[in-house]
Amino acid sequence: MILRSKDKPNTKLITYREKLFEERKAYQNKKNMKILKENNVDFKQLNEVLEKAVGNDYLLFYILMNFNVRNADLVITITDKDKIKEVYNKNDNFMVVYPNKVIYIRQDYKTSDIYKAKKHIIKDKKFVATLKNRIAEGYTELFTNNKNQPLKVNEMNNHIKRRYAKFLPEANMSQSLIYKIIQNHYEVLGDIKKLQEIAESRGHRIDTQLNNYSSTI
Q: How far apart are CA 25 and CA 23, in angstroms?
């Protein structure tokens, strides 16, 4: 930028910068592949775990598998359609239950200043019924600790690890690892449309996704 501002040659620096970008991408891809191999969990296993799960485990796994979220996105206030006006604000994440669907509103996530609020409609019958039961039990937060206090962002990683350990005791699961597994599955398939969908859901550009989460060389 300094050379450009002074109208001086900069071709060598630009070429070197591109070389560093390529080296970084190759390094990150190898690192991601190593992480996947060490944990030895694939996309099929994640779906099998989702099918087996019940209760709050099902809610957690479903969100991670379908919306490609980070930890902050999982701090969610829950309510039904008749009470949403009492609790709604423009800063937090919400799930609103209707008779045959759930609306998931994400407003507090890493790149929300760029991508604004995201809204997802969930019609999965098991998910809807499970969330209705949780609200009927008097909960106002989706995920809570053993003292029924809402889980904070910095507690969510351990929560994910503990809940998956019930089904995959040898794995060290995290939202980042789950995202890498999903990314790898569709990248191997060459499904560009799906890769674009999960990048959009995550809240970043597809080149960011391919540079940071890819595991193919």
A: 5
- What is the secondary structure of 155-198 as a DSSP string? HHHHHHHHHHHTT-TT----HHHHHHHHHHHHHHHT-HHHHHHH
State how far the Cα of 114 lies from the Cα of 65, in Å rounded to an integer. 23
**Three-state SS sequence of 198-211:** HHHHHCCCHHHHHH
- Could you give the CA distance from residue 172 to residue 165 in angstroms, rounded to a whole number? 8
List of E strands, 1-92 = 76-80
Closest CA to 16 of 3, 30, 31, 32: 3
Distance CA 134, CA 127 (A): 11
- Dig out the tokens for 174 from the structure: 């995290």
Q: Crossing angle, helix 175-189 and helix 11-39, to 10 degrees?
A: 110
Mean pLDDT of the 85-92 span = 96
Amino acid 55 reads: G
pLDDT for the residue numbered 217: 47
Residue with tokens 């939202």: 175
> Which of 12-21, 24-33, 95-104, 123-132 shows the lowest per-residue confidence on average (mean pLDDT)?
24-33
pLDDT tens-digit readout, 62-75: 999 999 999 999 99
pTM above 0.90, yes or no: no
Q: By the 8 A CB rule, do 161 and 114 touch?
A: no
Please say whether the dihedral angle defined by the alpha carbons of residues 210, 65, 164 and 170, taken in this order, is positive or negative: negative
Sheet holding 102-106, edge to edge: 76-80, 93-97, 102-106, 118-122
Tokens of residue 2, six digits:
């300094």
Query: What does the block give as tokens for 11?
Result: 């071709």
